[in-house]
Each structure stands twice: as structure tokens, then as C-alpha cells.
Queue: 2 jobs
Job 1
Amino acid sequence: MAVTESAMAKEGLGKMEKLKALLHINDPGKWRTVVANAKNLLEDVGAEQLELEIVVNATAVNIFDATDQEGNQVMRRLFLEAIRDLAQQDVKIVACRNSLKANAVHEDGVPDFVNIVPVAITRLVVRQTEGYAYVKP
């Protein structure tokens, strides 16, 4: 009988700390992949065995801009719903204040399930020193 990576990971998780993962997105065209990666990881490992954080910077923060009329609003709304669903499963969503400012996204319009940090690169580095695996789709 073949043992899958997933089965080995789950067996090993019973004996160790939770898995810690950072998904980094700076390209708005990667939202579909980031959301899929997060959902797949949650489904495979389970929320109780995972600390997952999505760090958003550069132009990817534009998804939080309610005044943006250039993009596809239907897709934006669908991705925001998917991101909200992830946040409800204890996935931390973190946006970079510098990127919000640089892209003229007003903080007061950012959804309440998004945490804002001063500088995304600092967050990424600190989390990696805390043992988070860095993933950039």
C-alpha cells in the first residue's frame, strides 16, 4: 500500500507543532492561485493543524479598493468572498500599508477581516524567522 505525502504529513503533525505557511501575493493576476493553494492546504492538512497567513502587497492590494471601477467587479467580489471565507477559517490576511498608500487604496475601505501592517517585507522576514514556510505562487 502506497503512503501518500499527505498521510505522512498528517501522521507527523500529531507529534509536532502546527504547520506554518506564508502565501505571498504581489501580482493581482495570482489571486486565483493563492486562494486555491490556501484552500488545498486547509483541506489537506486541516485548519487545526495549520497556521496560514496570506501577505498582500504591491498591486495585489487593489483587490481591496472598493472605488476601483477598471477591473472586473464580479471577479473582484468573488475573490473577496473567497478571501473572507479563508479568514473565517482562521487564515490571517495581511495587507501592506505602504502598498495601500502607493496604490491609493484607502485603509477605511479595506475589509475588516484584513489586518494592515506597516511594511510587508518586514512581515515576511519576521514570519520566516518564526518558522513559517514561504510560498509565492
Job 2
Amino acid sequence: MSEAGHFIDADARRLALEVIATLVNIKRTAAERVLTPAGVPAELVKRFLNERDPTTGEKRSKREAGTVILEALGALEREGQVVRRIIEIAADWQDFHLAQDEYRARSVVQKARECTLWGCRLIGLSLTFDVRGGLVMTHDLITSHTSVITPEDARQLATQFFATSKVSPTLVRAYADDMRSGRWLLNGASIVLSSDQKVLDGRARILACIEAGRPFEALVVEGIEPSAFETMDALRKRTLADVLTIRQIQHGRALAAALRIIWGYRTRTLPTPRQPSSMTLLGLIEDHPEIRDSILPSLRTAPLLPHGTGLALHYLFGLANPAKCDAFFTELSNETLSDAHGPIAQLRRLLTELRGKGGNRKQAYVLAVCIKAWNAFSAGKPLKLLRYAPEREPFPRISGLREPETPLFDRHLDAEGDSAAAIGKAGLTAQVEEITPEIAERLLQANSLNRRISGPVVERYARDMKAGRWKLNGQTIKISARGRLLDGHPPPPDWRSPHRASTGEP
């Protein structure tokens, strides 16, 4: 057996013991649900259930009995087959109510799913369990753990920033809004600390914690070489349109644009809305799924009216008066209007003139004139001249639409959720992997619904890997509990040079 094969078996054996010890609390049920389906012979199952420790005379624990069974299987040269079957059983496990510690059981199942995906190729890895059952990763001098970062912690970390470049205030504000309203989730993105405790990555989240005055949970990776900062990416963040497309929602990009407009109108921040986070806008579509009903009706006026803009207006006008909203969009899509000087005819002429002109200023102007045309149309009043002068008049409000009584998304954590102790409930595993081209191919096959990969960025990473400049930098490749690649594109399969990365699984 090769050295690599021996290492793989050792790690798999250790994981199999965790499965035996943690997935099922009752020993007999563990034998029925795990050992027997894995192919353990009946005589060894009997030993697992009944054998006593020769020193104490007491029945062995599941872990102790499991060790004895695996050793006996090794003598029969059947250990590898059974161990792999135990891991496969764990990877498909759903009956967490059978465990004494559900969080610990979930962590073991997550690890089994990773092992199934990656083939148990673990490099110099030591795994232990924290008090919540989450796996803690160590690799030489590099460690990782999930931690609840309080505003006091964040203030201390803010004095230890490695980079001196400016952090986007818009991004900090959006993160702070999510933390303040309880929408922030543990997502596998790491706060990276160097060996001398400098913050290499995670500045926006730390500053957002200070601004929000609320704790948040994060994966913290420590012990990274400061020189690895050069290999950290500065890619664009995943946009809301990316998320909606990944969720296979039709016209996701138009819907993303519409959600920003609806949020801006409802929060009275148009014509220059404060940029909400993707989590905020996902909350909007989850709270108001009927917004999607406007996707197809608003297509009638495209491309005269940009689809995202038309979608938002169709939804908002429909809230004010559904029948007149349908009539408004029907007339707006009609090129031959009987009233050449009516509000909709004037709007058509303005929109035709504006086609081809882009930018936020144009969108704000289009929204304003559409609303003014709607107000005249819904009231049945003539409109002498349709125009909007932002320097001389406020942004118009929609006639007939009741204003919300409370601010949009005024959702906060309850008294328990405000505390740092109440936040740390989610399980997450982290580990160091050597990503080979073969593993990269498997990961990319599990990434078919993700966003488009940037060619120049892939080329830059590949150059660093081929030249030996790539370093383990603490940034994570994120894999879901079901084994799908969520973020952190691996090296392209055609570059025949493995690299190391941290992987996190929320």
C-alpha cells in the first residue's frame, strides 16, 4: 500500500469511528442502522453489543467497541470495504433525532459528505470537536474555528488591519444592516489572521459589526503567512442577480433590478437609494413572492421600458389599482394610441428619446416620469407636459398606493438573539485540502448553476500555481451540506498543478 493510500485509510477509519460513536445513541440501534448495513458480520455485531472491557468488566462504549470491530475486520482484510460503506451511510444520513448530540452528529455527517465528494484526500489534518459539535481544523501552525465576534472584539481587530486601503462604506453599511436586523448568516467566508494576529481578510465585516453594535458568527482562520496576502482575491462579490440565477429563477437579472427599485421606493431613498445587501433584497422577495407575478406582464413594454424598471412599476402600480395597472401597461405597449397628447403617449415619446442612454440618472428620470404619467392616467386627468426636474421638485409618490406603516424590513432579533451566546448555533466544518486537477474537475461538475467564472482571474491564479507562488491564504472554497460547490472556484482542470486551500461547509 502506498503512503498516500495508507493516509487515506487512516483518516477514513477515524471518521468511521466517529460515525459509529455519534450518529445513534442506543447501541443496538447503531448496530441495526449502521454496522449491519455496512456489511459487518453477525458475530462481530454481537461482539459490538455484548463484549466487556477485560479490565473493568463493563460493557464497552460504542467508540471502544467500534475500535475492536475495525481491528477484527482489518485482520480479515475487510476493514477498507466496511469503513467506506459506513461513510456512505453517514453521507446519506437524515435521522438526527437518534443521536444524543444532534449538532455533533450533523458535523460528522457533513464530514462524511465531504469525504464522499473529495475521496478523503486530507493533508496533515487534525480534527477535534468544539463544544457545539463543530469541527475545528488545525494544519501545522494554522488553525480555524467558528467564533462569535462581538463589537468589542471587532474594535480590537480593527486596530490590527494589515491592509491600509479604504473599505467600501456602501458594503460596510449593507453588512451592518443585515447584522442589525438579524439577517446575517454564517456562510463559510473566513476572517483571516496572520501568524502575528494581523487581519488579512474580513475588514468590511469587522467594521460592520462595530457600526451595527451587534455580534455575528464567522469562521476564523489563524496562522496564515502575511506574504499570502498577495494571493487573496479581490473579485467582485456575488450579486443578487447571480444568486437568483443560481436559484434558477427566470429573468433573475430583471428581478434583481426591480427589487432594488421597490426597496428604494418603499424606504423613500429614491432617486439615489442607499444600496441594500443581497440578503435584504432576498428577504423582500421571500416576504413578498407575489412580486414575481409581475415578471411576464412587464415584458410587454420591453425594451421601451427596461424590464427591471417595468417589473418594479407593474408591481407597485398593481398594489395601487390592479385593473388600471393592467390598462396602463396595455396602452404603453400600444404604438398607435388614439390620444396623441395623453399621459401615456407623452411617456412613450420620452422613453423613445431616452433609449440608448444609460446610468443611474436615466433610471431615476424614467421612474419619475412613469410615476407622473401613472398618477395622471389613474386619475383620468390630462397632462400638459410630462417632465421631471429633480433640482426643483421631490421624487414623485405613486397615487393610490398606501405607504407602509412601518419601515421596510424592520426585523430585529429578539432579546435572546441579541446576545452573543444565542448566535453560535450553526455547525460548520473546515479543513485544508490539496486540490488536484482531478478534484477540481469534480468540484466544477458540482458547480453547474454557479456564476460565470472570470477568465482573467483564472489565468492569474493558474500562473501563480504553475510558478509555485500560490500560498495557503485562509480563504475558503465553500461546499454545501449536499456537496455542491457554492463559492471559491478551484483551479482549472487543464493546469496540472495541485494547490492547497481551506474548505468550509455551512
